[in-house]
Amino acid sequence: MPTAVLVHCEDCSYEETFDSLRAARMAVDDHERATAHGLDWYIGGLSGGVERAAADAGVCGREGCANPDSPLLDREAARSTGGSSTK
Ligand SMILES: [Zn+2]
Predict the structure, then answer these.
(1) Which of 26, 46, 57, 71 is most buried (most C-beta within 10 Å)?
(2) How much is the pLDDT for 3?
(3) DSSP code string of 27-78
């Protein structure tokens, strides 16, 4: 299932749809750098904070990295840094 990403600029009438996050991010980057406009983007009909979180988390370029609230991660970290070698 392709991801449809709508990029929309509130400061001008720029609006374009991309079929990949990467292409959309590049377009947003480009437009913001060239015009200093503020763009919104909507992924697959979603809107709100989801795409912003995705944008932030997307820095590393891997979707799997975008999960900072996983309780498993915390538990693993706590266990390995706790120094409790009770067995
Ligand atoms: Zn613009």
Answers:
(1) 57
(2) 72
(3) HHHHHHHHH---EEEEETT--SSHHHHHHHHGGGS-GGG--TT-HHHHHHHH
